[in-house]
Amino acid sequence: MTNSNFSNYKNGRRHQYVGGLARKSPVRLQIPSSGHWHVAIDMQGLRGSTRASVRVLPSPLPEIREAPLNSVPGLVRDVPPAVSDDAEAYDVFISHASEDKDSIVRSLAEALQGRGLAVWYDEFTLRIGDSLRRKIDAGLARSRVGLVVISPSFISKGWTNYELDGIVTRSVSGEQILLPIWHEITKQQVMDFSPSLADKVARSTAMHTVDEIAQEIFGLLRE
Question: Where is the TIR domain (predicted)?
Fold first, then answer.
């Protein structure tokens, strides 16, 4: 009760309160406003005694909000990679394990392509007879963003590590943006695989939808 209501309560006058009949403890009461409040245990004329204590709980912490990609230093680059006149340039290169195609990668590639971005993704780019390593090397060299879908399947493969090494090398030299996407994996698993990779700005499919990730990447590249 507020000060005035508590005074009315003690003097048997009409009063207002927050609470009601409690049949078990503990009891949590949400105070509707800040100020000085009194807690009263009213036995309603029943015989007996009770012990009570009060603990003030802090208000809920504010919601965690991730910084947008375009606010993170090193994730914004004005100049696209230099390529020869007859070479095709890409906005995004997607490195992934084939086991993750159906669950995330294909839909992400389509969402990025649907927003008008040029996407290097094997199902879009490779043709029968192509040299896989040569195509990957060319795609890496001509892409602005190296999108790496980190998953348990990804970290268990040697071939994906080859792609990751290329992306990391280019990101260190400033030639390419490295953006990890965590998929069905914990931070501890990523840290065990690569501590430096675990420290990178990333997006997780546990917290973001495919469309949200695609839209954020689109906004980053089209600013």
Answer: 88-221
